[in-house]
């Protein structure tokens, strides 16, 4: 604890740096993934190709990806942008799959009704499909938030400062408290962003709360029942 | 594309293929470490997941463990155990086991849970004992999902075993850290390429295994997505579409 009190400034500063690395990656991956996920949902061929690509991307070990990325981007290995790009790619690999599932799960009747009342393809996407897919997209986003914040610490071993620097520094100098502080701070940061995402979800999708309450009382929740 | 040439040159350099710390030795260490960890973690997590999936008790526990441990930074766990246990293999093995348990637990739980309750009721009605139901009905039907969990865990282990070279002299992460220290990009990239190939090979092997373990009876009647579902329960919007004879 004494270590923490005397280094509070450092932890605060690294937390901000950590946020600056992970938040852009989380937002970018969400914004990029939703259209890709919709495309994967829309056509059979694109589904196979896109989901396979995402699976392969997700299989690549993070440290190796961080080292190999500069070959394609021309950035330096130690550049923070390189880390953000890598985190974004992992985020995309997770959300595209979730987004495809989310759009798949929308009732066909709803889609047909939206077409029947005159929505164009894009209008239907914006007004009917996106809000209905919202809760599942949010669950995918929450997974990405937690894993991105945790993954960003790996940048420390290649020289990109973040809360992970507390791990490398603590290891080299033999300070257990520093590493423990880093772990706790990373988890707290992830929980904080997760909470913000949940709150944003409630603001943007006010119907999900009422729906959840009603469903639990009257009928069994339709969870994991998509498998035929 | 000069960078790639440097990496490939490092991999092909005969000097890197013999003596202590040669490429084959590193690959062997990496695979052996991953295998040992996978076996230990499976011995812990698969029975636990099977019990929870079969009885339906402790579902919250699985969700908590698999969700909570995702937030745990791997590097922090590695360095903390590295300090506690000193240089050597104990630290990476223990940290890797901790990190491999959640996907295995979630996979085993999801595999047993995904089996249609009516199938289990039918088995019970035919007079099968609880143990026979678990081994003869739930296990074969849930196996593709369970193997999916093992697949996620194996990939997680291979990735983190690379990072483990930071705290111990082991595996394919070694050339990466060596290259970082001496600013030799060819060595870093060479090591990275080998790790990526290894991960993709293992992923492919498990993908194949997932197809092979689908029971013949199931394969004949339906095709479906085999990858393990995410540990968090997924809410489905609306009712699933009923069409034709599909349920």
Automatic annotation (TrEMBL), chain A:
Subcellular localization(s) per the UniProt record: Cell membrane; Membrane
Principal location: membrane
Keyword Transmembrane found: yes
Record Pfam families: BPD_transp_1
Domain of life (superkingdom): Bacteria
Residues annotated as signal peptide: none
Xref: InterPro entries: ABC_transp_perm/SBD, MetI-like, MetI-like_sf
Name assigned to this protein: ABC transporter permease
Automatic annotation (TrEMBL), chain B:
Keyword set, alphabetical order: Membrane, Transmembrane, Transmembrane helix, Transport
Transmembrane segments: 31-52, 61-87, 93-112, 133-151, 189-209
Coiled coil: none
Localization terms from the record: Cell membrane; Membrane
Major localization listed first in the record, in broad terms: membrane
Region entry Disordered, spans: 223-247
Pfam family, one: BPD_transp_1
Superkingdom to which the source organism belongs: Bacteria
CDD domains named among the record's database cross-references: TM_PBP2
Annotated ABC transmembrane type-1 domain residues: 27-206
Family note: Belongs to the binding-protein-dependent transport system permease family.
Name by which UniProt lists this protein: ABC transporter permease
Native species: Agromyces lapidis
């Amino acid at each position: 604890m004494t270590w923490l009190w005397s280094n509070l400034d450092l932890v605060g500063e690294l937390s901000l740096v950590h946020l600056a690395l992970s938040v852009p990656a989380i937002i970018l991956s969400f914004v990029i993934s939703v259209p890709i996920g919709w495309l994967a949902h829309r056509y059979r061929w694109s589904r196979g190709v896109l989901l396979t690509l995402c699976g392969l991307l997700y299989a690549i070990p993070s440290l190796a990806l961080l080292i190999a990325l500069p070959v394609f981007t021309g950035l330096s290995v130690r550049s923070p942008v390189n880390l953000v790009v890598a985190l974004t790619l992992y985020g995309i690999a997770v959300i595209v799959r979730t987004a495809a599932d989310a759009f798949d799960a929308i009732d066909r009747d709803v889609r047909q009704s939206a077409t029947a009342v005159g929505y164009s393809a894009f209008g239907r996407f914006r007004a009917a499909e996106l809000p209905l897919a919202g809760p599942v997209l949010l669950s995918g986003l929450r997974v990405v938030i937690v894993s991105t914040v945790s993954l960003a610490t790996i940048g420390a071993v290649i020289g990109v400062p973040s809360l992970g620097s507390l791990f490398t520094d603590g290891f080299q100098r033999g300070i257990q408290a520093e590493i423990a502080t880093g772990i706790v701070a990373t988890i707290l940061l992830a929980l904080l962003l997760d909470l913000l995402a949940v709150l944003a979800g409630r603001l943007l999708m006010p119907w999900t709360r009422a729906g959840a309450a009603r469903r639990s009382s009257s009928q069994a929740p339709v969870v994991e029942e998509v498998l035929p | 594309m000069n960078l790639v040439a440097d990496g490939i040159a490092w991999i092909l350099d005969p000097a890197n293929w013999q003596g202590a710390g040669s490429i084959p030795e590193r690959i062997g260490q990496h695979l052996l470490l991953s295998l040992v960890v996978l076996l230990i973690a499976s011995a812990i997590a698969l029975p636990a997941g099977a019990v929870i999936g079969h009885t339906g008790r402790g579902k919250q526990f699985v969700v908590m463990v698999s969700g909570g441990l995702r937030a745990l930074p791997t590097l922090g766990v590695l360095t903390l155990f590295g300090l506690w246990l000193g240089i050597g293999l104990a630290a990476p093995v223990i940290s890797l086991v901790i990190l491999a348990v959640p996907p295995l637990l979630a996979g085993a739980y999801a595999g047993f849970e995904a089996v249609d309750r009516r199938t289990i009721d039918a088995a019970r009605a035919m007079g099968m004992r609880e143990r026979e139901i678990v081994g003869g009905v739930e296990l074969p039907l849930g196996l593709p999902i369970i193997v999916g969990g093992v697949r996620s865990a194996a990939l997680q282990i291979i990735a983190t075993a690379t990072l483990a070279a930071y705290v111990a002299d082991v595996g394919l992460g070694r050339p990466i850290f060596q290259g970082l220290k001496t600013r030799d990009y060819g060595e870093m990239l060479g090591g990275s390429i080998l790790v990526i190939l290894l991960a993709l090979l293992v992923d492919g092997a498990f993908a194949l295994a997932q197809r092979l373990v689908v029971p013949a009876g199931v394969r004949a009647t339906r095709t479906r997505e085999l990858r393990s579902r995410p540990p968090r329960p997924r809410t489905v919007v609306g009712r699933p579409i009923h069409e034709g004879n599909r349920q």
